[in-house]
Design a protein that fits this description.
Layout: E1 6-10, H1 14-26, E2 30-34, H2 37-46, E3 52-56, E4 58-59, E5 62-63, H3 68-74, E6 80-84, E7 101-105, H4 110-125
Parallel strand pairs: 1-2, 1-3, 3-6, 6-7
Antiparallel strand pairs: 4-5
Helix pairs in contact: 1-4
């Protein structure tokens, strides 16, 4: 995976976010972190480039799906991984294209997130 990839990780659970962010950093990615929708929106507005978004579905001030619209306004083909401990009941609200949208249920392995990012960003760059 190219070390130039920048991922926005939105997760309100500090331990989960920290562990995943460190794993992705150790894997050569650049990681921007947010623990709520407001922080994520500010990063989306300010960041010059995002290569992928990893968003928890349930956040204290909204839901991760609501962040996809402003992000895809800036980067139309942005790959998004939705993380949920409640299944993927809202799958019908996504594009349905696995190169653009994936659901990963909690609990997950750190490697499964990296693997999905690798797969989605290599598909997006092909």
């Amino acid at each position: 995976m190219a070390s130039s990839l920048t991922v926005l990780l939105i997760e309100d659970d500090f331990l989960i976010r920290t562990c995943l962010a460190e794993f992705l950093l150790d894997s050569g990615l650049t990681v921007r972190e947010a623990d709520n929708c407001a922080e994520a929106r500010a990063i989306i507005a300010a960041e010059p480039n995002l290569d992928a978004l990893v968003a928890d579905m349930a956040l204290p001030d909204g839901d991760g799906m609501s962040l996809v619209h402003p992000a895809r306004d800036r980067w139309p083909d942005l790959p998004v991984i939705y993380i949920s401990g409640h299944g993927d009941l809202r799958r019908d609200e996504t594009s349905g294209d696995p190169a653009r949208d994936r659901f990963i249920s909690k609990p997950y392995t750190l490697a499964s997130i990296l693997e999905a990012l690798e797969d989605m960003t290599s598909t997006a760059s092909d």
